[in-house]
## 1
Amino acid sequence: MEETISLQDLFKTLKKNLGIIALTTILAITIAGAVSFLFLTPIYENSTQILVNQEQTEASQLTNQNIQTDLQLINTYSVIIKSPAILDPVIEQMNLDMSAEELTQKITVNTAENSQVVNVVVRDEDPAQAVEIANTTAEVFENDVRELMNVDNVSILSPAILKENPSPVEPNPILNMAIAAVVGLMLGVGIAFLREYLDTSMKTEQDIEDILGVPLLGVISPIKEKAELETTTSNRRKAAELNG
């Protein structure tokens, strides 16, 4: 016999296990909040902008080939910025206790589409150090790229600045708690349906018919408690005495 579950049964299951669902959701939010505020290290972000000025002659025209050449040059600069040729001098100037590979993990270089501006983004546990790394990297690149590529078309457009009250970009407690709430809710619903699936006891007349597959012939009335029986018997005796 194929077992089917109605929408009403689903709502009954959720209602019956509402406490478990609420408990798992609150517990997940609490754990996520505690981890975000107490255990995860705040990460701060700052950036500097580098402008790549292409020299244009009077006879030059803006063609697709020129645009492609500009983009390739900027992509090359993006690679050079994160190379040991730039990062090793940065480490030496700042006396950083890390390798060029470790410093690379803190730096992200990106450019806007069809833009001559290169953004050097630095993430670090210390906001002041993030600013210093970004500015030092830009300065070293501006000076050393002249010898590396024999060009003089790079300048710092906007240096990184330390804000008075910097806010960390990681972790995001609100986002973490929101995700935890969804996960806790899903977990609670899963537990609710798992309990219902594992519960094979028969509680109603319909359960008997569904599980055994036979029609119900009769129902035994609930047995009254001893006190109720004594009260009923006493009332019957009084009624008989009055009638007699």
Note: The chain has a mean pLDDT of 83.
## 2
Amino acid sequence: MSESNTTDAQVVQRIREGDARAWEDLIRRYEGRLLAFAESRVGNRAASEDIVQEAFVGFLTSLPNYDGGRPLESYLFSICAYKLTDHLRREGRRPALRLDSSARRGGDESVAWQLPGSARPASSIARSVERKRLEAVAVQQAIEEQIERWKERGDWAKLKCLELLFVRGVSNKQTAEELGLSEQQVANYKSDFQIRLKAIIRRQNLNEEVFPEL
């Protein structure tokens, strides 16, 4: 097994164990390539982000059926191509897809937040305060938007789960027991919520200094 496949297998195992950081690793590893793949065919950044988001959610949903018999990269691109085809059909466009993973990330998407010198000038502190305010507003709006979507769809199990996790601070295990879910389902709902929030925040077109990690 190649080093890449070994790393992928380890990430998948950590996701199955409910490790939230594993999801971040998966997204950081493949999001750029999937976005390049989708955008080269759709020509729209926002639509491409939605497609990739749905692809990650699709992987999350299909995780119990993924046996590692095929490379994770190939599996993710297959899901992305499926979601892309659905998008094109909804728009009345004829899908013409060549499934490959040749698109590569153009560079590091993270932006370092560095402060020169050992002392922080007043202007830096003011920017930091303003940044935190913008982040708080962006997160609030994203949460409200996603909650409304789930309400419209009647996804009450997800809403109850997230209320227990984030509002009451209940553990994954206790949440699963209280709602009659498996711990894997609880971890999936939590990861699904985090993926969707990040996608909504990205579409807000915030200054690059706000949420540089996104």
Note: The two ends are 32 Å apart (CA to CA).
